[in-house]
Automatic annotation (TrEMBL):
This is DUF3830 family protein. Pfam families: DUF3830. It comes from the Bacteria.
Amino acid sequence: MSQLIVRAGEFTFQARFEEQLAPKTVAAFRKAMPFESQAIHVRWSGEGVWMPLGDLDFGVSYENHTSYPAPGQIILYPGGISETEILLAYGGVHFASKMGQLAGNHFITLTSGLENLTTFGKTVLWQGAQKIRFEEV
């Protein structure tokens, strides 16, 4: 099983790909690694941060999709009704956009550092965008 490091702001989290549940999403994301972006706080979804990716096309459709990711779960919305995005839940999330409820593919789960997840989310909320990097180890 592949291990990931997610560097988010001043925090480092270990994570795993959900290869059995979202194999196409994992394969597509792996091609883009190391993946770097900026995490900003969600507007409509609750306690989460997101990486807006515009019209970036990972070439995947729905698999293992949810509108309610749990804290530490990372989902990829492949685009369509709204822009492509990645969302990391740090608390209660009901995934949505200005167009309404959305569902994203749960493809990464954080496995360590969860005690810092809420602090990271609140840092993004109160201090603004934070760099985020996904790398496989």
